User: What shape does this take?
Amino acid sequence: MIWNKEAECQPEKEREKLQLERLKGTVRRAYYNVAYYQKTFDKAEIKPEEIKSLNDLKKFPFTTKAELRSGYPFGMLAVPQSEIVEIHISSGTTGKPVVAGYTKNDIDLWGEVMARSLTMAGTTREDIIQNGYGYGLFTGGLGVHYGAQKIGATLIPVSAGNTRRQLDIMQDFGTTILTCTPSYALYLAEVAEEEGLLNQKKLKLLAGCFGAEMWTERMRDELEKRFHLLALNIYGLTEIIGPGVAQECKEKCGLHIFEDHFYPEVISPETLEPLPEGEKGELVLTTLTREGTPMIRFRTRDITALHRGVCRCGRTLVRMDRVTGRSDDMLKIRGVIVFPSQIEKALLEIKGVEPHYQIIITRPHQLDEMEVQVETSRKLFSDEIRHLEEARLDIEKHIEDVIGVRVKVTLVEPKSIPRSEGKAKRVIDKRQL
Ligand SMILES: [Zn+2]
Assistant: This one.
């Protein structure tokens, strides 16, 4: 099922024309209405009128989260505040948060792209959507809400949390579409299983749109097996619009980016140059139709690759891979790119290992060495030394299998790695580069 066939299946050449028209307008509006863009474009000695092709976008400077924060609260608005009908604020772990302002047209656009997303998962007006994304400043809840209203489906705005109630509603109302984070969906599945709801086939779930955090194919398998539904990936971010930037179709071969509204590039996080199709790098997005807070070349820090060509579902929209890491925590060890999240994933697959670890990188003889200090469970640590050594070698082998680089693993006592109130410091880089 396709919500907007004209837009989603438009021939690529035609879409490029539309993108170029919209890009010209956006860059102009950003430059003449937002002091920040005026300053950065002037510094880069580039004028909006220099956009003659989509390729010219790469001459323009990037926008980063740090720069958006400096505009707090109204500095990034491209319209008078009186035209803003809604504001969302992204939670930041450091510094001031990022503000997204929506005009009436922006809210309409959000409903449109979310209607496309939900329809991609099979939603029609006959469906009952249980929306387990949080309502509030976080964009998840309201994004799904607007999309569901556009479709005319029955939406239950249960919001995040309250597991007992979620399962009651799921059962009593015969929820067919579930929207929430994948980790919460998995938790719901576990509780539902414990309570026998799954064995007795008391649920009517057909599909779920899961996102707002990184997840794996393994988690998809788990969710599909337990809930007997189709688990699809949805992607978005507050800086661009919220959820509804991209959505996976039933073919599960990547997430279709709604590129008639959000123009994607993938750049090398090292050289900052655009990469060819299919190569992994950092996703950069430019809004093409946003009025309130247009974004020019926003660095998402999410690592993915783009794939073109007509999808088996009939859509011509470019597809992005599932996000597998963030460029702001990317490491390069002996030329191989490694993400702490991969190491974390590898560790969590091993019994008796706690999710507390620290990565220490050194370069003793002109060659990078990576040591992973891992906390073991109390039980494992009190075992005989022989067992400990076996466990250590197991972990080394497993990490090497996952990341492709040999690392040294050191097992440390439970609770010996410093805990942090905010974001844990996972990497200590001692190389002098
Ligand atoms: Zn498709």
Summary: Residues 249, 251, 256, 311, 313, 315 surround zinc ion (CB under 6 Å).
